[in-house]
Amino acid sequence: MTENEKNLFLPHVSSRHPSVVRENASILQRKFAMIHEILPVLENPNGKEELKYFSNIYVEAKTVLTQIVRFVTENKIADKKGIEGNIRKAEEILGYLKILHLRYKSVYMFPPISDKPAWYKYSQMENREIIEVLKKLITI
């Protein structure tokens, strides 16, 4: 069996492409920088455009973080140089973004997804409170 034939049976994992993970990390960093820039000038945390902005960032950042976590776990590097702590912080930020994403979907998407908004099972916090928490998490 040739080397190319052996590669056919290997699972396609991100561990074979660390440059892709570095690119994903920079994408995630840019997304969080965008949040950091918008938070101080945010006037209406309940507005449609504001919620749509956070919803879009959540959708884009979720897949990127998933790929990063997959790479870290497959290569068993979670304990190196505080990687695990950074991933937990990113997941916490995405958790709050998810609430804003679900609120946007339940309020501004037509037809409504369901009669019961899904964000209630995640948090009873107001949008303003979530924005304050995000400010603290992003600036640390």
Please sum up the structure shown:
The protein is mostly helical and 140 residues long.
What do you see in this structure?
The chain is mostly helical and 140 residues long. It contains five helices and no strands. The chain is elongated. The mean pLDDT is 79.
Give the SSE map.
Layout lengths: L2 H6 L9 H21 L9 H27 L8 H26 L18 H13 L1
Helix pairs in contact: 2-3, 2-5, 3-4, 4-5
Essential attributes:
140 residues, mainly alpha, 66% helix, elongated
- Tell me the fraction of residues in β-strands, as a range: under 5%
Helix/strand-derived category reads mainly alpha
- β-strand number: 0
Low-pLDDT runs = none
What letter string, H or E per element, gives the SSE order? Answer: HHHHH
Fraction of residues in helix: 55-70%
Taking all Cα atoms into account, the compactness measure Rg is 18 Å
What's the overall average pLDDT, rounded? 79
* Continuous helix count: 5
Overall geometry: elongated
Largest sheet: none
N→C terminal distance: 52 Å
